[in-house]
């Protein structure tokens, strides 16, 4: 039975990846922050399912501590490591740049060093981001697009992406970066714009909220479904050779399109409720991130299966359901 170690297992991507790996008969080890309660996270349903829970081990560990990371990698001796942990919100990275950068850069480095010294044959996936391209002058972007980040989060991810490549080339490690475009789901953090909008639409429909404040409505993103993205992460580690891949849908939508899809699915007209708040407009916003995932499609045989409209509808209805039950791990 193959063993995988997933950092950030309780988050959106980690939880979908854990489901996928369990489905594929892996033994899944996951890291959680000291003090965090996994029963109140996106993996709660896996922990309450005995046959699945038997193949899961959670480790409370601080990924800021090099010795603990090294000891964990040595103890688990994983076949595959998926590094998904970290603060992933661009807006927040302006507010806490030091913490965002320190964690993103040094946690990747600690894991790569642990891999090198403890289990050099293990395969390593690192979650990079389209934010490394900053304000690209070409669209769509691919693996050849110059790395030129414009926010602290993008800078940190750029550094980690270079580290992964350096360790692959210098030490021959099977280390890969997935350059991930925005990927969403009902498990997305509530401060991301898709979830914020879907949640507000449901609350407005229920009469619990009167207005929604947003930043730049014209900003465009390439939004895919997280469940599709974790499949590509797994596929990247099943190849004969390690490499970096852009993962994206190749379809661009604006924040207005999210509003149309979310409010529209509940029969609401968003213009009645939305106000722009200049404080939510970001400095040097990348206006149009759009990815070309041709390499992933050709080499990995990967393609996204969930359309933008289906995804926003799923997210909106999940919020309606949550308002009914009042249960929502964040
Ligand atoms: P990001 O692409 O990783 O920064 O993902 P987000 O979901 O945070 O933001 C996507 C886009 O929505 C960005 O261009 C934001 O500037 C824009 N946006 C507009 N209003 C808001 C808002 O109220 N919250 C967030 N998070 N983003 C907003």
Write the layout of secondary structure elements.
Elements: E1 3-7, H1 12-23, E2 27-32, H2 44-47, H3 50-53, E3 56-60, H4 66-76, E4 80-83, H5 90-95, H6 97-118, E5 123-129, H7 152-171, E6 174-180, E7 183-184, H8 193-205, E8 212-214, E9 220-221, E10 224-225, H9 226-236, E11 245-247, E12 253-254, H10 255-265, E13 274-276, H11 294-300, H12 308-325
Parallel strand pairs: 1-2, 1-4, 2-3, 4-5, 5-6, 6-11, 7-10, 8-13
Antiparallel strand pairs: 9-12
Helix pairs in contact: 1-9, 4-6, 6-7, 8-10, 8-12, 10-12
Guanosine-5'-diphosphate binds near residues 192, 193, 194, 215 and 255.
Provide the list of bound ligands, each named once.
guanosine-5'-diphosphate
Mean pLDDT, rounded to whole units?
A: 94
Neighbour order of strands in the largest sheet: 3-2-1-4-5-6-11
Which CATH architecture of the largest domain is right?
Answer: 3-Layer(aba) Sandwich
Low-confidence stretches: none
Q: Distance N terminus to C terminus?
A: 31 Å
CATH class of the largest domain: Alpha Beta
As a percent range, the share of helical residues equals 40-55%
The named CATH superfamily of the largest domain:
NAD(P)-binding Rossmann-like Domain
| Biggest sheet features | 7 strands, parallel
């Amino acid at each position: 039975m193959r063993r995988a170690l997933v950092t950030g297992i309780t988050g959106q991507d980690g939880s979908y990846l854990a489901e996928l790996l369990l489905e594929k008969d892996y033994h899944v080890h996951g890291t959680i922050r000291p003090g965090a309660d996994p029963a109140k996270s996106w993996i709660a349903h896996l922990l309450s399912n005995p046959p699945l829970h038997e193949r899961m081990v959670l480790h409370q560990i601080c990924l800021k501590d090099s010795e603990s990371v090294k000891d964990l990698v040595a103890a688990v001796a994983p076949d595959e490591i998926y590094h998904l942990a970290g603060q992933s919100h661009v807006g927040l990275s302006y507010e806490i740049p030091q913490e965002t950068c320190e964690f993103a850069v040094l946690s990747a480095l600690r894991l790569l060093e642990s891999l090198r010294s403890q289990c050099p044959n293990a395969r390593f996936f690192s979650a990079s981001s389209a934010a490394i391209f900053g304000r690209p002058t070409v669209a769509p972007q691919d693996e050849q697009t110059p790395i030129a980040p414009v926010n602290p989060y993008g800078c940190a991810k750029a550094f980690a992406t270079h580290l992964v490549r350096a360790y692959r080339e210098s030490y021959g490690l099977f280390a890969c970066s997935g350059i991930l475009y925005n990927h969403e789901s009902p498990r997305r953090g509530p401060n991301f714009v898709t979830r914020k909008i879907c949640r507000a639409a449901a609350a407005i429909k229920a009469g619990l909220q009167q207005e929604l404040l947003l930043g730049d409505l014209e900003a465009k993103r390439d939004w895919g479904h997280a469940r599709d993205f974790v499949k590509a992460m797994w596929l990247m580690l099943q190849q004969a050779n390690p490499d970096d891949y852009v993962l994206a849908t190749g379809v661009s939508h604006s924040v207005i399109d999210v509003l149309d899809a979310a409010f529209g699915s509940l029969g609401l007209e968003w213009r009645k409720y939305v106000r722009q708040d200049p404080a939510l407009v970001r400095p040097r916003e990348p206006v149009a991130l759009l990815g070309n995932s041709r390499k992933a499609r050709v080499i990995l045989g990967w393609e996204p299966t969930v359309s933008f409209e289906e995804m926003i509808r799923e997210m909106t209805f999940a919020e309606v359901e949550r308002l009914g039950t009042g249960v929502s791990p964040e």
